[in-house]
């Protein structure tokens, strides 16, 4: 899949000297990147430490080393927009694990961005990212993809209990076919045969881990933020003409 709508993100924090946390994202308009809210916080700090700078790399396939000496677009300050309900009482609420990054200038008018899938979806999806290819492996230098089946509400609830809200989230139920650490913020997408294009159904949020926070990706049942549940929030925070950028017809049935 030539996912030219993908973005590779590096989030920097004052407490991490010469380091960053990496995530994925998607270009949803000529001015905005969609990602996960948890990609913008360092959870090793109490209270959670919000990033001060995000570097956005576009149209890259290989990220280690970064191909073609690609230069990032830098996003800072109020242009880093996690959902206001993500940190509730200082603790993360993953039902609202969604965020926007506003670029400093418009992308070219012919730039490829992804449509957002508005209806509730049940079926096969494809996840894209640079995460681990196995629980014990390292993050991938090149973009990877994996296909899986979306679970029913009962299947996802049985796996996650109170951490799962079917109204705001979906999960994958195919063993050994799952996202892993490093895929956070990236998209899960559906290929629409009628329109011959991909549209984004979810955002990679979290998955199973052991007591020492080691990934257990082969279990499947990773959880994804449901884009359709946040359609209005995305529109209100990125689509107004006064805020810069265009207002694309996001809904792709």
The residue ranges in which pLDDT falls below 50 over 5 or more consecutive positions are: none
**Sheet with most strands: strand arrangement:** 7-6-1-2-3-11-8
CATH class of the largest domain: Mainly Beta
Broad structural category = mainly beta
Query: What is the CATH superfamily of the largest domain?
Result: Trypsin-like serine proteases
The name of the CATH topology of the largest domain is: Thrombin, subunit H
Query: Radius of gyration, Cα only, in angstroms?
Result: 17 Å
How far the N terminus sits from the C terminus, by CA atoms, comes to 21 Å
CATH architecture of the largest domain: Beta Barrel
Properties at a glance:
253 residues; Thrombin, subunit H; 2 domains; seven-stranded mixed sheet; 2 helices
Descriptive overview:
This protein has 253 residues and is mainly β. It has 2 helices and 18 strands. It has 2 domains: 6-113 and 232-243, Beta Barrel (Thrombin, subunit H), CATH 2.40.10; 115-228, Beta Barrel (Thrombin, subunit H), CATH 2.40.10.10. It is 6% helix and 32% strand. Strand 9 (87-88) and strand 10 (91-92) form a beta hairpin. Strands 7-6-1-2-3-11-8 form a 7-stranded antiparallel β-sheet, with helices on one face. Strands 12, 13, 14, 15, 16, 17 and 18 form a 7-stranded mixed β-sheet that branches. It has a two-stranded antiparallel ribbon with strand order 4-5. It has helices at residues 153-160, 231-238, and strands at 6-12, 21-27, 32-35, 41-42, 49-50, 53-58, 73-76, 80-82, 87-88, 91-92, 99-102, 115-116, 124-129, 144-149, 169-171, 187-192, 197-206, 223-226.
